């Protein structure tokens, strides 16, 4: 914890912003991809009406 605090006080803001926001951005992209694949799977397997149940 002490290393993170020191890092937050010493590094450039732009570098910290990229390093700390990258995991959240990747997580949101994975979630969006999961939702897209789920919609395609349900739409092809069950039908177009079933897509309404996903939203």
Structure keywords:
0% strand, 55 residues, mainly alpha
Descriptive report:
- This protein has 2 helices and no strands.
- It is mainly α.
- The chain has a domain of 32 residues.
- The model has no long low-confidence stretch (mean pLDDT 88).
- This is Polysaccharide biosynthesis protein C-terminal domain-containing protein.
- Keywords: Membrane, Transmembrane, Transmembrane helix.
List the helices and strands and how they pair.
Elements (H helix, E strand, L loop, with lengths): L1 H9 L2 H33 L10
Write the H/E string, N to C. HH
End-to-end distance? 40 Å
What is the tally of helical segments? 2
Main beta-sheet strand count, sense and barrel state: none
Q: What is the helical fraction, as a range of percent? A: over 70%
Q: Give start-end ranges of low-pLDDT stretches.
A: none
Structural class: mainly alpha
Total count of strands: 0
CA-based gyration radius:
19 Å
Backbone shape: rod-shaped
Average of the residue pLDDT scores: 88
Question: How big a fraction of the residues is strand?
Answer: under 5%
Keywords: Membrane, Transmembrane, Transmembrane helix
Protein name: Polysaccharide biosynthesis protein C-terminal domain-containing protein
Transmembrane segments: 16-37
Quick overview:
The chain is 76% helix and 0% strand.
């Amino acid at each position: 914890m002490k290393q993170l605090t020191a890092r937050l006080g010493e590094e450039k803001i732009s570098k910290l912003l990229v390093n700390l926001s990258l995991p959240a951005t990747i997580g949101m992209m994975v979630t969006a991809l999961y939702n897209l694949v789920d919609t395609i799977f349900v739409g092809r397997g069950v039908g177009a009406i079933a897509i309404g149940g996903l939203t």
